[in-house]
Amino acid sequence: MLLISCPWCGEREETEFHYGGQAFVAYPADPESLSDEEWAQYVFFRDNPKGAFAERWVHSAGCRRWFNTVRDTVTNEFQS
Amino acid sequence: MSLRRSPLAGYPGITEIPFLTMVNVRVRPTGDAAARISERLGGPLPVVPNSVVDAGSRHILMLGPDEWLVVGPDGDTGLPDLLREPSASVVDVSANRTTIEVRSRDLLEHGCTLDLHPRAFHAGRCAQTMIARTQVILWQTSDEPVYRLLVRGSFATYLADWLSDATGSTSSTG
Amino acid sequence: MRLPEGGEIDRTKPLTFTLDGVEYSGFEGDTLASAMIANGVLQVAPSLYRHRPRGIFSAGIEEPNALVQVGPEPSLQATTVRLTDGLVARTLSGVGRLTPDSGQRRYDKRYTHTDVLVIGAGPAGRMAATTAAAGGARVMLVGLSYPSGNVRFRGSPQGIPPADGAAELRVLSGARAFGYYDSNYVLVAHQQTLWHVRARRVILATGAHEQPIVFENNDRPGIMLAGAVRKYITNYAVLPGRKAVVFTTNDSAYATVAALVQSGAEVTVVDSRPNPPDLAPQGVEVISGLITNTDGPERLTAVSTQDRRIECDLLAVSGGWQPAVHLFSQSRGTLRWNGQAFVPDTPAQANHVVGAANGTFDTRAALIEATEAGVEAAAAVGYPVPPPPLPAVREREITPASPVWLVPGDPRNQFVDLQRDATVADIRRAVGAGMRSPEHVKRYTTIGTGTDQGRTSNVPALGVIAAELGVTPGDLGTTTFRAPSVPVSFALMAGRDRGKLHDPIRTTPIHSWHVAHGAEFENVGHWKRPWFYPKPGEDMETAVLRECRAARTGVAMQDASTLGKIEVVGADAGEFLNRMYTNGFKKLPVGSARYGMMCKADGMVFDDGVTMRLADDRYYVTTTTGGAANVLDWFEEWSQTEWPELDVRFTSVTEQWSTIAVVGPQSRAVIGLVAPDLDVSNEAFPFMTFRETTLVNGIPARIARISFSGELAYEVNVSGWYGLAAWNAIHDEGKPYDITPYGTETMHVLRAEKGFPIVGQDTDGTVTPHDLGMSWIVSRQKDFVGKRSLRRPDTARPDRKHLVGLLPVDPAELLPEGAQMVASDAPLTPPVPMEGHVTSSYRSAVLERTFALALIKNGRHRIGETLLAPLGDRVIAATVTEPVFYDKEGARRDG
Ligand SMILES: [Zn+2]
User: What is the top-level taxon of the source organism (chain C) (predicted)?
Assistant: First the structure.
């Protein structure tokens, strides 16, 4: 079980967090101007790299704050 | 019969501190609104996450970077209005949670994943975390130790059941 | 046989125990196995598949044969069960049987944190722990046994006392670490408690397991590991046999020889090495050679070498030592073959392996490793210590081992895995079938899959496979090590999370009233909600029809406190809600309420509920009972990660408010009595508005005109502290109108009669607002999350599944929820094209018939068509209708 560092609360057990998937996928400024393909990219497609991955977590059972971090998907080590 | 009823009224063997006044304050920590709130409380909003400062009969728990819980005694009914500010979210949550007092670290360690060793957690610290399968605000008020568990009213009976059950087994597995 | 003196047992404390119905005695300090041997009971239950006689084989967690059931717990190893007075055990063949009722036994869990966790309480583990703890670091030492007093070593009788500074050294004796997860998270079974240990550093001193040698008939009772024989003699003062043969490939078995000789046993040694030690001066014959076969009716009576037959009742075997790398390997550390065994190579977490677990078998070298690891760990966690003096331990000279993987013989009786009854013949069959990877051979032969996790079979199996393929075991690599590395019971993992503590039960402030008034309850999320309130003699159907009738013709009340509630505050609160909901909230007047619907980014309905505007910058949002936490998370996510510039903040107030719905044509009269200060006329208090007032008993309340039934209805919100008092007041004032409490089933029927969907029942994450026939709630003016998705080609298809009504042709037939609907002309032989499914189905008092809601392909364009629900033994025909069954004009809302 991962030990995850919340920027506000410090290290807490994984069970206190929810995973938020890939980081830095911004909500499009003008969704209506996007083609179906472009919108589908935003809604459905995410990276799944082996190695360093920037991702989002929320400390849902604690301070409810969202934060970004980088995790190595092979070793599960956080590098932020 | 009193019209007011706390979630654990009549629950045997549990120390409930009912009807504490609680106000959730969410405000930008550096702005004028925060300063005015501090002034009215007679003490600064704490800025160390998961720490507690006392302001007279009230206690201010820092829950997050822009969030505090102000806890006053039963009957501190003016507190929400005292803290009201145009650019702050001030919400009365007095009935949202009740408070259980626990005097055993060992007991909590049966269901709490936090490190409660005095080197890591002590009086003046608070944390939003899980005990068994429910969320609580865990707040250590004394190094004896004395802890307060602020639990949502709907989960209070579950937590009381769990604490009672765990109390029965701490002596044998301590 | 118990020796007259010696051992670490307490001879002043005799214990009695029962095995397979026979009573025996032992001493405090015995394991069940050592007490059995003391009573001459070496034989255990026959093997699982071949039913061959078997005996106690080891003295620890590697035991493959001596499985027992103790009370409710199956599959325990007699070699690790601590003897207690009155213990009742039964020997098992391979598998045990779970006892559903674990009786009065209590299981529990503990969470703990430590700076340094040391696993293994042998000399290296003890040395590492006392070293690491000397500077004040928090150290936890977990081991199978930990004799009290000083830390002692063979050859160093005075031992080392723990340092004065080690106030934070905690010892869990009789404990087994069995799982090693990410971030140094280790699970430890200690009696009835499961410890969850989080450590900053871990030192693994897990020792090594002696390996057997594969020869013909190597499975008889009386054949044991050499180290186990020594342990029984020195720790427990029991002698497993008087006439012993020791078969070894290495030096370590000579300690067993010495112990046997000292205990008065007659000993012959068979050593695989060409120049074995000469023990003639001690009166021990040492033969250079191999054991090829054994003999005996059941228990061993003789062994054969290439050219000799030796009478004996005990064969002590040592095929070398394999470090116990299970935990290291679980922690994702890599292994390396050193020519004799697999040893730890590169760690993947903050851990150190020391002593025999690291392949370091010399005691002095092991202690040096342990000391270094302790010093390093203490410094790493901020409590540095100077290196302590080493205890005086003799250095030994070692003659290299000569591993023997397989002695030629009949492969059908050369056992590789005693617990799985797998032989060399099985391995040959696997290899002959073309398998090369040990993972494949393991699955084919089941070698290593027993509860002993292959501690005495994995390496011999690799040796045999390698021999078959003409490679070395190092070329093959090991199979994967997985938790739990020792058997643990499900009851231990469940701990106290059983019965009413299995999952939280959430209750409202009015719960005690529901219980006192005989409500049947329904689980909604974690909530217990009244389902219906049967009167004496009523079944569910009768009770629900009565409750529905009351709501449609009189007045009824429901505890709706379980609704999720969120205060949304800030100058941009309206703008934020506009972006979240499909419809608009920015222009909602203060004092008014509006129903809203939310979608995820994919355009699928996510939650719904009514929102009131309390002030310009303050909204009170309600969510579905099950969706409250998800909606709050959803708001926080968008606010924090996408629109931090918006001034808006959220506070959950679900329990701050108790909510009571008062429903029916007579509800206005009841509310008039309950809230005497309130003008309840339709003009003064119109639909979808709310008022702040004081109830007849003095309680402050917020009353809204909201209806989920189509009837005139109110929602009374009071502080949770006053929920029960408000309920009682409404119930009292409603008595003249025969006010009827109703539960969730009636609520569901009433709303379904009006065609109001329930998110999560009539939707399943694949349904858009348009699919529900609710295009009116989708704003064309503003953007909201999910809007763009509603134009996607698939989402905009005109023939998607639509929410429609279904009226069974026979008005008495009730369609089961979940039933698949097929076209009336569909062939009823698979594959039958499915047209959709029933999402809600009820009997209606007001319609005097059954009815249902369903998601049907292209449903809105199939009104009037008859569909069939094939239900195995019968088929129900139903007609597709509009989803609104009652009061289509909405005439009843204002009373
Ligand atoms: Zn946090």
Answer: Bacteria
| Strand-strand pairing, C185-190 and C175-181 | antiparallel
Give the minimum alpha-carbon distance from C633 to chain A in angstroms, rounded to a whole number: 7
What is the rounded CA–CA span in Å between residue C884 and residue B141? 57
**Counting runs of H as helices and runs of E as strands, what totals does chain B give?**
4, 10
Contact flag B134-C504 (C-beta cutoff 8 Å): yes
Class of domain C564-652: alpha beta
- pLDDT tens digits, C70-86: 887 888 899 989 999 99
- List residues bridging with C156 in a β-sheet: C153
pLDDT in tens, C519-562: 999 999 999 999 999 999 999 999 999 999 999 999 999 999 99
Residues of chain A with Cβ-Cβ distance to C789 below 8 Å are 39, 43
B21-95 and B14-18+96-167 share a CATH fold? no
Name the band, by pLDDT with cuts 50, 70 and 90, for residue C152. Answer: very low
Residue with tokens 């991702």: A55
Residue B140 identity = Q
Beta-carbon separation of A64 and B64 below 8 A: yes
CATH for B14-18+96-167? 3.30.1360.120
Written as six digits, the tokens of C653 are 């107030």
**Residue C144: other Cβ atoms inside 10 A:** 18
Selected residues 26-85 of chain B with any CB under 8 Å from a CB in chain C: 26, 66
What CATH number has the domain spanning C511-561+657-750? 3.30.1360.120
- The domain limits of chain C are 10-98+212-318, 108-209+324-380, 411-476, 511-561+657-750, 564-652, 797-895
**Percent of chain C that is helix, strand, coil (3-state, to 5):** 25, 30, 45
Residues 647-666 of chain C with CB under 8 A from chain B are 647, 649-657
- C-alpha to C-alpha distance for C237 and C259, rounded to whole angstroms: 10
Q: pLDDT band at C838, cuts 50/70/90?
A: very high
User: CB-based contact (8 Å) between B128 and chain A?
Assistant: yes
Give me the residue from B114, B128, B130 closest to A63, CB to CB: B128
Sequence letter at residue A76 = N
**Neighboring chain B residues of C651 at a CB cutoff of 8 Å:** 24, 26, 89, 91, 93
CATH 2.40.30.110 matches C797-895 = yes
Put simply, whether the predicted model's pTM sits higher than 0.80 gets the answer yes
Q: Quick one: which of C688, C694, C692 has its CA closest to C722?
A: C694
The tens digit of pLDDT for each residue in C160-192 reads 555 556 789 998 888 999 999 999 999 999 988
Determine the distance separating the centroid of ligand 1 and the alpha carbon of A7, expressed in angstroms: 7
**CATH class of domain segment(s) C411-476:** mainly alpha
Selecting from C505, C650, C656 the residue whose C-beta is nearest the C-beta of B158 gives: C505
Q: How far apart are CA B14 and CA C368, in angstroms?
A: 52
| Record: contact B115-C652, CB cut-off 8 A | no
Domain positions in chain B? 14-18+96-167, 21-95
Q: Tell the CATH topology of A3-72.
A: Folate-binding fold (3.30.2270)
B129 touches chain A (CB under 8 A): yes
CATH T-level assignment (fold) for domain C108-209+324-380: FAD/NAD(P)-binding domain (3.50.50)
Which residues of chain B lie closer than 8 angstroms to A1, CB-CB? none
C498 shares contact with chain B (CB less than 8 Å): no
Of the options 2.40.50.140, 1.20.1300.10, 3.30.70.1520, 3.30.70.3400, the CATH number for the domain spanning B21-95? 3.30.70.1520
* Chain B residues close to C653, C-beta within 8 Å: 91, 93, 96
Q: Which of C74, C102, C43 is nearest to C496 (CA)?
A: C102
The second-level CATH assignment, the architecture, of C10-98+212-318 is: Roll (3.10)
